[in-house]
Amino acid sequence: LIRMLRSAEQRDVLQLLRRAPEETRPFLVEAAVATQSVASLAALSDFLDFSKEPRSLLERFLYTAAFSPRPSGELLHLVLDKLAGKHLAPEVWETGIVAVGSLVGKLCQQKLCGLQQVVERGVETILRGLRGAEEEPEMVISLLALGNAMLPETIPTLLDHAEDGPTAVTAAATSALQRFPAPHISSKVKRVMRRIFHQKRRSYDKTCRLAAAEILLDKHPLPMDVINILLATSEMETEMATFLLLKVQSSLR
Fold this sequence. Notes:
By secondary structure, the protein is mainly α. The chain has one domain (1-179): Alpha Horseshoe (Leucine-rich Repeat Variant). Helices cover 72% and strands 0% of the residues. The protein has 15 helices and no strands. Helix 11 runs parallel beside helix 13 (206-218). It is elongated and about 65 Å long. The model has no long low-confidence stretch (mean pLDDT 92). Residues 1-234 form the Vitellogenin domain.
């Protein structure tokens, strides 16, 4: 089917999508996304109406785009166009934002960050969603998207939310920071992680403290950080202390 779609004209793909029985449309949408030909993406653009289509079909399209192993700039462009300026169901918007982060991250992994306009538009869409978020869940979704994108320039934003946000936001931001490779974990990042783990400014949830400790232990650990984390385990509950001790032992091995 994918081979056939790669050689099909836009009107033929569109006709196939429109005439297909409802139960087979999700499968055909997945195939069209996998094809990633200009004709298939144009047909999807014409076919998918984010204000009318069933939520399940829209989410299937967005999930398929997000999990695409080698996405194109055109696919990201299509997703952004479908999310722009519409009153969408919250679930569809959330899935879309996470998909945008995934697509941006994969394009940059393919050394295609040079597709400046579409990549910048994707990042700005995520950041705009974060700035405009009024509820914790909305902020968490945008932070998950930034974690998927893994762009070094977003690290300061993640640090701000990691240290100063409410519990769910701090957890999402520290989790996003964990995804960055060691070269991007600067001394500034480590200072913030130390403050979170040792609770220098306020109390943090156990999950947030563990994530901060893992960043300190996994990304070129400094001897003093290892020592201080080990000393801190004496004041922790058994489960958390055991986890950190095993983490240190694993690193030593």
